C-alpha cells in the first residue's frame, strides 16, 4: 500500500490508507486508544477499540511519544474531530523506530526551554510546525529569487569558499591550513562576482555560505551564514542596483505571501506585507541629521557608521513618516567602506554605496564598484593594502571590464525580518556562533 500524506487524506475518505509519521500524542483510555499521528504536512487522529485485539492494544500502549511509525486503517469523516474532521480507524501499526523516553526535548510541551538548550536538540525542536514553516518559507523565498533572476537573464555562479587572500579585509577571517600554506574561509564571493563581470556574464547571482570570524553574541550575528549575492554590469550608479534590489525583493515577498501568507498569519501571527516600490532613500548625512534631532549619540568607535540602536531609530522614523518597512541608507563615507567601492566624482570622500534596513535591521550592503584599475590601485593603497596579495583581482580590470555594481544580502536576516522572528537562530537550520560547533 502506498503512503498517503496527511494533507491529502480528505480525498481518501472511505478508503483504507497508510500514513507514515511520528506519534505526537497517545491517550490510552479504558476501552479506546486515541493517537495523534503527524507527518511533515499535518496531523490526524487515529482511533483503536481495545476489544478488537488485546495484543494490538498492548503494542500501541508501548509506543512512546515521537516514535516513527506507520499506521494503516479505514479513513472516515467525523465532523466532531478537531483535526480536519477526519478519523483513521486503526487496523495495523508498525513501529519503525521507538523513541527513547523521556525525551530530552518535548517539541510539543506547553513551555519550551531556552534557545541554547533547544539548539542542542535542534532535530527535535524542528519538529514543531512553526519551525517547519520557517524553512518552507525559506525554500519558497529562494525559489522566488531564482524565478526573478532567471526571468531577468541572470546566471548562477558557485564561487570557491577556500581563498588564498581575503575578499573584504584582514579582519574577521578564519584561517585554515591548506597543505603547506595558509588559506582563508570566504567572507564574500565579491572578487569572483566581479570576475564574472569582466568575463562578460553581465548578470550573476549566488546563494552560498559566508564565514565571518566575528566574536559577537547578539540575536543577529553568526560566524557562518547564507549569503545572497548579485552583481550587474553596465550600471550608471548605485541607484541602478537599488532599483533592481527593491523590485526583486518585492517579488520575493509577494510570492511568499501568495503561497504561505495565510499559514504564516495563523501559525506565527505575522501578516506578511509586500513592500511598495520605490523604497525610501536617505543619504548618510540625512540619517545622521535624523539621529541628531532625536538626541541619539552614536558610539565614538562607530564614527562614519551606524550602530544597531541607530538602525532601529531610523527604521521607526521611516515607518512613521513613510509607512514603509524598508529604507536605503546611501552615500557612505570612504572610511567605513572597502577600497573597491566607487567614489562620488563631486565628493571623493563619499562612496556610491548603500545599506538596506528592514524593520530597523541591516540586511544588505551594496555599491557601484570601481572598475578602473588605476583608481583601484590608488584606493587600495590608501587603505594600506599592498598590490601583491590582490594582484589576481586587479588583473580582472585590465582587459575591458564594464562598469558594474551589486549587493550581498543575508538570507537568514531576511527570513528573520519577513517572519517577525526575534533571534536569527530561529531562522537558521544549524546555528554557528563563537561557542557553537555542534550539532
Tell me what you see in this structure.
The chain is of the alpha+beta class and 439 residues long. The protein has 2 domains: 92 residues, Nucleic acid-binding proteins (OB fold (Dihydrolipoamide Acetyltransferase, E2P)); 304 residues, BirA Bifunctional Protein, domain 2. It is built from 11 helices and 16 strands. The strands form 3 sheets. Strands 6-10-11-16-15-14-13-12 form an 8-stranded mixed β-sheet, with helices on both faces. It has a 5-stranded mixed β-barrel with strand order 1-2-3-5-4. β14 and β15 form a beta hairpin. α4 runs antiparallel to α6. The two termini are 36 Å apart. The mean pLDDT is 96.
Strand content: 25-35%
Domains (count)? 2
Rg, alpha carbons: 27 Å
Order of SSEs = EEEHEEHHHEEEEHEEHEHHEEEHHEH
CATH topology of the largest domain: BirA Bifunctional Protein, domain 2
- Describe the oligomeric state of these chains in a short phrase: single chain
Fourth-level CATH superfamily of the largest domain: Bira Bifunctional Protein, Domain 2
Q: Give, in spatial order, the strands making up the sheet with the most strands.
A: 6-10-11-16-15-14-13-12
CATH class of the largest domain: Alpha Beta
User: What number is the mean pLDDT?
Assistant: 96
